[in-house]
Amino acid sequence: MKKIIIAIAVMAVMLAGVSVFAANVGMKHxxxxxxxxxxxxxxxxxxxxxxxxxxxxxxxxxxxKDLLDQAYVEIKLAAEAANQNKK
Length: 87
Hints:
The protein has one domain. The mean pLDDT is 83. The chain is built from 3 helices and no strands. Helix 1 runs parallel beside helix 3 (60-85). The chain has helices spanning 2-21, 30-52, 60-85. The longest helix has 26 residues, at 60-85. It is mainly alpha-helical.
C-alpha cells in the first residue's frame, strides 16, 4: 500500500512538471532552449531511475525533479528578461 501511495505522489509531481515544460523558451534563444531540452531529458532519466528502484529513494529523486522544474522556469524567466532588455 505504501508503494502505491508513493507512486501516486510521484505521478502528481511528474504531471506538475509536464505543465512547466509547456512554457518553453522557443527558438529565439537557442542556447536557453537547448538547456531546457537537457532538463527535460534529465527529468525523464530521474523518473526512469525512480521506476527502476520502485520509488524507494527517500524522496531525493522527487526533490531533484522539483529543482529541475525550478531551473526550467528560471531559464524561461531569463529569456523573458533578455527580451525586455533588447527593447
